[in-house]
Amino acid sequence: MDKVVMIVGPTAVGKSALGIKLAQEFDGEIISGDSMQIFRHLDVGTAKVLPEEMQGIPHHLINVRDINEEFSAHDFQVAAGRLVQEITARGRVPIIVGGTGFYLRMFLLGWQLGTERQPDDITDGLTDQAAWTKLQQADPAAAAKIPAANRRRVERALTVIARTGRLFSDQGDDTTPQYDAFIIGLTTDRARLYARINARVDQMLTQGLEAEARWLYDRGGEEMPAGKGIGYREWWPYFAGQADRAAVIDRIKTDSRHYAKRQLTYFRHQLPVHWFDLLADPDAAAAIRQAVAAFLQPAK
């Protein structure tokens, strides 16, 4: 089983910088686990690491799609899996850095959803019992192993069935990792995190976020996959003359803070993360390096 280091956490917490430092120390290559950094031409609003900031470390899955192209969780799973094999074959360490939780969880567990995106409405309007009954009708063997109260696994099983056309019970345990992963989670207290998010948005504005959003809008971005991201979608009413600029900036900051909260909740409940606060504890960096070194040691 290939070893993978993963760095997860909310936006603006320092994941990219840590990824570069670990790649330098452990001869690694970075795979972006961010669903927006895949788009070409959108650099400011996606907080991409620029070539001059990469310090010679190879970065993958950045700038691999045009703004009108989809990049599903399945696409990420396939592309990241291939890259892990290639990087490992080169004798280097794959380091996945990002905050798109569903992408990372799907990669780690190897779910087989096909090429389409995850349906958000597969159990909409159903109670837990009704959703479980739907699973029981579709796959009695799976329903026998999943309690009705476990809504997440019921939805996961129904999604797999819908996307693959195969019984979930025939596809193995969806909680068995496909990689030997050491998952580093970066976090900090809410006040510090929110202040950093607000400051990052202000910095993006000075770097040309509005012009980048206008460029996307002028090309029909409102209806494109790239136009759904935070930092871009908030501008559409302003460009249409339906909102003022101050309201747009406030909305970007609010949406970014809410997203960070959702990211933390997801990672805390969906992945086996080792948490560190680099912003409050300077000694945490040494602890991370020590933990990664121990993880990468060959088995005796």
Automatic annotation (TrEMBL):
Q: Does the keyword Magnesium apply?
A: yes
Q: Does the keyword Nucleotide-binding apply?
A: yes
Any single Pfam family the record assigns to this protein: IPPT
Chain segments carrying region Interaction with substrate tRNA: 34-37
Any idea of its EC number? 2.5.1.75
The protein's superkingdom reads Bacteria
Quote the SUPFAM superfamilies the UniProt record gives: P-loop containing nucleoside triphosphate hydrolases (SSF52540)
Going by the UniProt record, its keywords in alphabetical order are:
ATP-binding, Magnesium, Nucleotide-binding, Transferase, tRNA processing
What biological processes does GO assign it? Answer: tRNA modification
Q: Which cofactor does it need?
A: Mg(2+)
Summarize where ATP binds, as residue positions.
G9, P10, T11, A12, V13, G14, K15, S16
The record's listing under InterPro entries reads: Dimethylallyltransferase, IPT, P-loop_NTPase
Q: What are this entry's molecular-function GO terms?
A: ATP binding; tRNA dimethylallyltransferase activity
Site positions per UniProt: Interaction with substrate tRNA: T100, R117
Reactions the enzyme catalyzes: adenosine(37) in tRNA + dimethylallyl diphosphate = N(6)-dimethylallyladenosine(37) in tRNA + diphosphate
Query: Any idea which positions bind substrate?
Result: T11, A12, V13, G14, K15, S16
Per the similarity annotation, which family is this?
Answer: Belongs to the IPP transferase family.
**Biological role stated in the UniProt entry:** Catalyzes the transfer of a dimethylallyl group onto the adenine at position 37 in tRNAs that read codons beginning with uridine, leading to the formation of N6-(dimethylallyl)adenosine (i(6)A).
State the HAMAP family in the record: IPP_trans
Quaternary structure? Monomer.
State the name under which the record lists this protein: tRNA dimethylallyltransferase
Native organism is Schleiferilactobacillus shenzhenensis LY-73
| Gene encoding the protein | miaA
